[in-house]
Amino acid sequence: MITGYEGVTHVVHISTNASKGCAECDQLIYGRHLDWAINHYIENNGYRLLHIGTETGRDDDGNLLHSTVAVLGK
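The structure corresponding to this sequence follows.
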């Protein structure tokens, strides 16, 4: 059975709740611009989108924190 994950050896996780450097080129990835971040990985680094969804956690004060996340791989 062939899946969308066939051949994937490296995975990155990006979130609207965090900013960090690109795993490939150190370009700063702003999570609040998730669309730009996803396109950056796809167009500049050859990744493909594996999953997009929501994530719930808690902030430092214990309040619920909701974010949108994307998982990309190549």
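The chain has a mean pLDDT of 92.
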